[in-house]
Amino acid sequence: MPKPESFPIEKIFVPTKQKKAIKPETVAEIAESMLDIGQQEPISIRLDGDRLVLVEGLHRLEACKALGETTILGILVPAELAQPKPLLAERPEVEAERVKMARLKQLRLEKEAADASNAASRGVRATDAPRTRSTKGGRDEPKASPGRAAKSTPRTLSDWITQQKGSGGRY
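Above: the chain sequence. Below: its structure as tokens.
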């Protein structure tokens, strides 16, 4: 393991992609810690031609800048070891999990929509059904009015004759 050296902060180039990841609250916490106990962990930098490029330690570098430091402890790493670690979101297993979770969410939403649709159609069918009133002591089927002779079995011979006359039949 190489020994940490002191590097001038102004000579360290920070790639734009890394600059976007700065979290001010983290920088403030590290700066406060550096005031109390100093820099405990060196940053990693690599040589790119004649310039120094930050590999790891963005928040430590920014904390030193915020404190007004002109140098920072760092370790010079070879370019082949300085390949950025893939972000968690770029790993294939994470992407596979994300796709799986998206599919499960889609299936859940489809099931909820189908259940809601079924419940709505059951509700419509229930409102389309004839409504019956339950009255105390009432009959299930009201008597047919005399003007509307129901085709039922006559009780007497005169009922049968009346029914035949009404239907145009011969007696």
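The radius of gyration is 44 Å.
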